[in-house]
Hints:
Strand order of the largest sheet: 4-5-6-7-8-9-1-12-11
Low-confidence stretches: 24-28, 30-75, 133-141, 225-238
Keywords: Signal
Amino acid sequence: MWRSGRQIGFLLLIIVLVLSGCQRAAVQDDMAQNGGNIATDEVSPSGENGLPTEAGSQAEAEQANTTETDGTDVPDRDLPSEEPAVEPRKEPVRIPVLIYQLTDDILQLPVSSIPYYDKGKIRFLSEEDIRASGKRRTGHQTGIDDVMALTSNLTGREDAELDWTAGVEGERQTSEGLIMKETAERRYELFVPDVGRYEIELEAPPGHEVLYISKITWHPNRAAGTEGQVQSADLRAARSIVFYELPEDVFQRPRTSIPYYNDGTIEYLPEYVFEQYEEGHQPWLGTGIDVATVMTSNLAGQENPYLELSETLPGFHFKQSTPSGIVIQALTNEFIQLKVPEIGTYDIEMTVLGDLSFLMISNITLHLNEYS
């Protein structure tokens, strides 16, 4: 019994050995036929040698290496962001300077209420002044000669320095090159070397022959006012120009009859404006730098000159407009300086009205060759 079992086990061992040899031979034959590689029916992700790779094929690996090297197409890579393009500074839109203007409504008033521009000073003529020959200005109806006398302040020179001589008809000139000429009826031009050109308009109130200056517009020679530029003798001679002045006696008039300077236009404020101020409304009308900012934008010779005005030194009432470089500074509450590149520095003086702290512009003087 034991012998029979041993024989059976021996036979099973021989069968296993035979089968193992056959399988080994088959594998060797396959390796020989396939160049030493293992044949397989599975599709390898490598597509070439049957070895799975984490990076994929060699081409993909090279592309990945290239991408990593040049830093492109890598969404998670920390690359420096592009700086935003700096927009070029916009140049201000330059416009003429409206120095003085009377509205049609004011010209319809009685002559005793119409401001009379005389070398920058504002006077008031009465009916008697106009009729009385002794008080009537010589040359009221001589046209160009009268305009020359009334606007000599615009030259920046004293009357004694102006040696006007007659040239062609309707034109006067000086040895320094100043020219006054009539361009149309009641329309004149005054040219001052290195200062610029003025357009002057005149109107007569209804029923009167006397002519009132109704408008003065200045086209400045901006190159002459550029900071750092050497100033000519003509410009140095015209060191300052008084554009507008209210003498002290004007403030003896009723407050609704005192000229109010509003961007070059002369107005009369109604009584309710003063009453509202007394009640605490519109307190800025008593703050010099605010009055200058609102009421003198015409002097800058630019469109919307104070659009970007910002307070650079809070508490010192110092304001600056960018990017054009206009500066408004309050030296006192009643004395403001307005500095405009290419033009110069304006001194703007204000007068307190009576017992109120209400301010009214009473003097505007331009220093042509000063911007510092």
